[in-house]
Amino acid sequence: MGCMDLRQWIELLEREGEVRRITAQVDWDREIGTISRKVLEREGPALLFENIKDYGNARGRKVFSGGIGTRKRLALALGFPKDATNAEIVQYVMKKNQEQIPPVLVPTGPVKENIVLGDAVDLLEFPVPKWHYLEGGRYINTYACIVTRDPDTRVQNVGIYRGMVGKKNSIPTLLIKGGQHWGQHFAKYADRGEKMPVACVIGWDPIMGFLAGSPLPAGVCEFDVLGAYRDAAVPVVKCETVDLEVPASAEMVIEGFIDPDPASYETEGPFAEFTGYVSDLPTPRPTIAVTCVTHRDDPILRGTQEGNMPGSYSENAVISSAQRAGIAWNILRSNGVPGVLDVYADPVTCGINIYIKIKKQFQGHAKQVANALWGNSAGQGRYKHVFVFEHDIDVTNYQQMDWAIAYRVNAGHGGITIFPETFGHALDPSTPLEERNVEQLGSGTWNRVLVDATRSWKFQRRPEWNNERFPPTVEPSAADEQLVIDRWAEYGLD
Ligand SMILES: Cc1cc2nc3c(=O)[nH]c(=O)nc-3n(C[C@H](O)[C@H](O)[C@H](O)COP(=O)(O)O)c2cc1C
Predict the structure, then answer these.
(1) Domain boundaries 6-302, CATH class
(2) Where is the 3-octaprenyl-4-hydroxybenzoate carboxy-lyase-like C-terminal domain (predicted)?
(3) pLDDT in tens, 376-403
(4) Starting from the edge strand earliest in sequence, which strands make up the sheet with 300-302, in order?
């Protein structure tokens, strides 16, 4: 379908009745965030705020949020009809994540309509929301796709990482050195004693965030994969002050450098995070010193309400439920794990819990599933709890899974395995703060759990049980059931 910029995406959503323009005046200070939360609770439309207090005549006047806030809108972004099934989307993601079309460099584009350099930069000329009352500041990077370059290979990476307005031209960030790709780049620049160039791309094709917010393998540039999703090369332009390339029709690009010297760190956090908790403390963190902002005329600041709770989940959740399931399934496939029939990540945990359905082929099968997921870098911040079920259990159905956990898991006989002190997410509130100090440890720490809810093969087959290892269920025999169905009307039960 070709790449689309944010304005074309909003037009498409408008045609589908999936976006509301809010023309009533709203406050950037918590009101935009709270409206977004209430709309998420209703699985409501994407929101374009056009009249923001204090910003009537500012450089930036609009905020757009919720573009992929529901599974229907994710389907539209991917070019599917709104009612595409989970399986259709996950299978498509598994295929497309592995294809690439490199970007094409173009001389200029709408993102260069305005160029603000050096001291003239003031990030608060844009209507940056304070999304939640407990947050440490105004978060400009909630859906910004941050471009960095591996200094050894020169391959670019694009990832979504949060960032708060610090000074008028600085963005302290949560930068996790030990797993995420910009963290790996940062460690390399630090070893060379160099600052890391970054470009924060705000507002473009909806697939950009879908890919940037997901762990594609190291060395794969998300713009190349985006080209494959759209079957068209991404048109990119060179940045003004950093050696990076960014989409030519993005709404805004914030350029700058991150200095590895802790003396340059500014205080960041807390943030109302994807876990559903405001889960860390204000901490001095690596900081983008902004050197330039380029933007379109009348730029739209793309942002998102990030936290997830039952009945109220975010764009990250919708993205993760498709991507984290697809990525897990690809990991299992490439590691040769046999018999995988389905993989499900419920939006509410963004893939922290993952449910796998297999056709069991040997006693340690579930452990092979967990080993593969826990050994892959994509599992660093996800797949903390792995649940494995057999082919007769629907892994999107909690009642079926609960029943299997109740009667197929025997914790004393290998049904539950704990893999202690592995790498893990830094924002999980169940990990004590000192075990998720990324400055000291490089990443968070997790005690991971496998729940093997498959029937054990340690039991002997028994003739009384139709030669199976497990007893029969209480379901009537097929013949008995047919007889009753045939006579149903006679019983007066219709
Ligand atoms: C909407 C959205 C917001 C996200 N926000 C953050 C964030 O603030 N900090 C973070 O570390 N990861 C965040 N993530 C997850 C990362 O983007 C994800 O781990 C991704 O794999 C990072 O890119 P990388 O694998 O190239 O490092 C977010 C994901 C999405 C979809």
Answers:
(1) mainly beta
(2) 324-446
(3) 999 999 999 999 999 999 999 999 999 9
(4) 19-22, 46-49, 62-65, 300-302
